[in-house]
Write a structure and sequence with these properties.
Blueprint (H helix, E strand, L loop, with lengths): L1 E4 L22 E4 L2 H7 L11 E3 L1 H6 L5 E2 L4 E2 L3 H15 L9 E11 L16 E21 L2 E12 L12 E11 L5 E2 L5 E7 L2 H14 L2 H11 L3 E2 L1 H14 L4 H4 L9 H13 L11 E2 H11 L5 H22 L11
Antiparallel strand pairs: 1-2, 3-6, 4-5, 6-7, 7-8, 8-9, 9-10, 9-11, 12-13
Helix pairs in contact: 3-4, 5-9, 6-8, 8-9, 9-10
Length: 346
Amino acid sequence: MELVQVNNSKPKAENNSSLIIPEGTVQTVEIESSINRQSQFKQNPFIEANTKEVSLSTLKHDCIIPVFSKDNEKTLAHQEFIEIAQDCVGRVFSHHVIEVPEVRVSHQIKGRTADAIYKPVKELLDHEKTQYFERMAFIIRIPSITENINGNDVSLTVGGVRAYNQENLYNKKTYEKFKFFVGFQNMLCCNLCISTDGYQDEMRVGNYTELQSKIMDLLESYNAQSHLHEMKQLSEQYLTEQQFAQLIGRARLYNYLPKENKSQIPELLLNDGQISAVAKDYYLDDSFCRNDNGDINLWKVYNLFTGANKSSYIDSFLSRNVNVFDFTKGLTNAINGDSNHHWFLS
């Protein structure tokens, strides 16, 4: 573990960010190795589905970089996206602890070198195999910025998604698409908590500099105080067991509604299997299950939603996470009878 002393007279990043930077005496930036981080505490993955964890080194040294086939121009590689994000986070949070990125990938694309074109698969040597991952998600935690909500510590977290399946790699190089967020992570279960204001679903960029600029813009405009306030309010509202049962039933019906009816109801992006997982965890989850009388507060409901969302594929994971936050806030209004989310509780 390396500790880098930061000069106290050094000015903070030049921006008008509305992020909360807690006052404190720690003025160091801590750079942790992956081994040291894992030895301190075991983290559950922030997304599961069909993903696996890889290191930044693996992306750099063991993966090829896809190109746009008609002009052979390379794409911005996964590791470049992560390093750009690291650089931006380091600028904005220069006086805080910043952890190494946690990276998860899916949809491995295999290949082979030209000199091994006629070899049987079982005879291929390691240096004759190539690979890259079609989809990649990462997060970077900033654990020195932490708040407590309903007994759960949540730490400021940034991250992003790159999915090559959303690019037209069979054409000439054009704008590339990235997803990026800044929000919080519930350290109890490692569920991500992302709001609309802290998320950009499609950053369209042409080069490194444009991506860096758009990430900085999002970091500087994000209002962490407002986001925390909205999440804390969720713990003050409760659903009865009957209301929760009604919610689950309506949510199961939602995906089968006629198109014209569905258009008049707030969107819920979770699929049928994920709603079933929410229903099961209402009884069985150790941290977010119902109270003894069957009631459950909306903070717990929200975490049941975000926990179920971990089974989403990488390319739909963040948009569903944002959706369930907006949906849960709508339930707050529905409890008071002044929201079109009332359909889910009626």
